[in-house]
Specification:
The protein is about 55% helix and about 0% strand. The protein is mainly α.
């Protein structure tokens, strides 16, 4: 089987995995339970979309979310994610996963799980919509990879790697890494250190709430240098 055929098969499988989580039948919901209890039927999509950003702002302050993620979703610490401009469905899914113990296995997830357990699903929708209202984070200049290393991983963004069954990063995360309204996160402007930590957690299995293990598979075949270069690239993106 040549590299092009492998890429096509990989994309078909990825598309199937992505599209099926939108179905509302019980079979798909049961399969989603492997890594997340979210099934994006119309009712769920509308529930998140109708979240109240005014109330979300209040929750961000009162539950001290802002102490890590910032008043307007820009994280001050390098190892915490910026939430500004993040897709509401993705943020909501993460909170549900924390609450349900699907996003577990690290010290950070333990802290977030305790917070999420105190939130109602309406709280989660409200704060998710609040963060989504902001522009994506501004570019930063971390020092995780050299210019040459970043240039080397550019083909992964638009072409992927057929030999390793890696689909193009931007196929799912958007042409400008702005994310996808299903529950694919934006990556543009994200803290490089957080991105690296996330990929390493997928790679070692300590993070396992990615539906159908998509990110676990990809991270396992990426080298550490490639992960660092990808983190650098996305952090430097101008929004």
């Amino acid at each position: 089987m040549n590299s092009m055929n492998k890429v096509l098969i990989g994309l078909v499988l990825l598309g199937f995995a992505t599209s099926t989580v939108f179905a509302s039948d019980n079979t798909v919901k049961e399969r989603s339970n492997i890594s997340s209890n979210i099934a994006w039927d119309i009712e769920q999509i509308l529930f998140v979309r109708n979240g109240d950003p005014v109330r979300g702002k209040k929750i961000n302050t009162e539950m001290m979310c802002a102490s890590c993620h910032g008043e307007e979703g820009i994280a001050a610490a390098k190892n915490w994610p910026s939430m500004a401009g993040q897709k509401a469905n993705y943020t909501y899914k993460m909170l549900i996963d924390y609450r349900d113990g699907k996003r577990a296995g690290t010290a950070t997830s333990t802290l977030m799980s305790r917070l999420a357990e105190k939130m109602t699903e309406q709280d989660m929708a409200d704060i998710s919509v609040y963060y989504a209202r902001f522009s994506l984070p501004p570019a930063t200049r971390p020092k995780l990879a050299s210019k040459e290393q970043v240039e080397k991983i550019l083909p992964l963004l638009t072409k992927g790697d057929g030999k390793r069954m890696i689909p193009p990063c931007l196929l799912c995360h958007g042409a400008d890494a702005e994310g996808n309204d299903r529950d694919i996160p934006s990556l543009a402007g994200q803290r490089a250190e957080y991105f690296r930590k996330t990929m390493q957690e997928y790679k070692d299995g300590s993070r396992h709430n990615d539906i159908y293990a998509r990110m676990r598979f990809i991270s396992e075949v990426l080298t550490d240098d490639e992960i660092n270069a990808l983190a650098q690239y996305f952090a430097e993106m101008k929004n």
